[in-house]
Amino acid sequence: MTEEELTALAARGDQDAFAQLVERHQGKVYGLTLRLTGSPEDAMDLTQETFFNAWRGLPNFHAESKFSTWLYRLAANAAIDFLRRERRRRSLLTVPLTGEDGDRALDIPDRRLDPQGEAERRELQGAIQRGLARLTAEHREILVLREFTGLSYAEIAQVLRLEEGTVKSRIARARLALRRALLEDGNFSGPPSST
Questions:
Q1: Residue 191: inside a domain, yes or no?
Q2: Domain holding 73: CATH number?
């Protein structure tokens, strides 16, 4: 069954159709909330909250966007609200980002059987996670949506309710901020000098 058919059935109260939608999207929703919060426990709670909100809001869902895009908007909003509450609760918010099975990792060649390659991959992932943790919530969110969740510019614009041009410029600024953070930590070299 297509996502549209399942969505229509679920909107009319079909729990089996909704269960299929949950099965199809729970990994990505969990991955998104994990990348935004850095906590597996919080990500699990936010994933459940997202699907609960989706079930409640589904009768009012109008298919001007895809169900998955709407669902990612719900997940991103839940994570952002959670982070705001946490920031208020703590004076300093640190977000250690760690990968989990099922997350879309960086597109790095598979070197699991190569110990040196595995060590380099883990070092690179750790550096990027530390760099992401140093970004503002706005920059971290938009990079996670684009690079880890794989949403298109148009989908990100729908999720964040922004113009597509704004999304592109924020992604460019976020990438520059991440690059600066990685350079400051000594993880990458700057551009070659022109001598």
A1: no
A2: 1.10.1740.10
The three-class DSSP label of residue 175 is helix
Cβ neighbours around 193 below 10 Å, total: 5
CA dihedral 13, 16, 20, 25 (to 10 degrees): 50
Which value, in Å, is the radius of gyration of the alpha carbons in the chain? 18
Q: In the chain, how many domains are there?
A: 1
92 lies in some domain: yes
pTM of the model: 0.56
Are the beta carbons of 21 and 7 closer than 8 angstroms?
yes
- Domain range spanning residue 68? 3-104+116-184
| 171-187 mean pLDDT | 85
Is 60 exceeded by the pLDDT of residue 183?
Answer: yes
pLDDT digits (tens, 9 = 90+) for 105-154: 444 444 445 666 667 767 777 777 788 888 888 888 888 888 877 778 88
Residue 96 pLDDT > 80: no
Helices 67-89, 153-160: axis angle to 10 degrees equals: 50
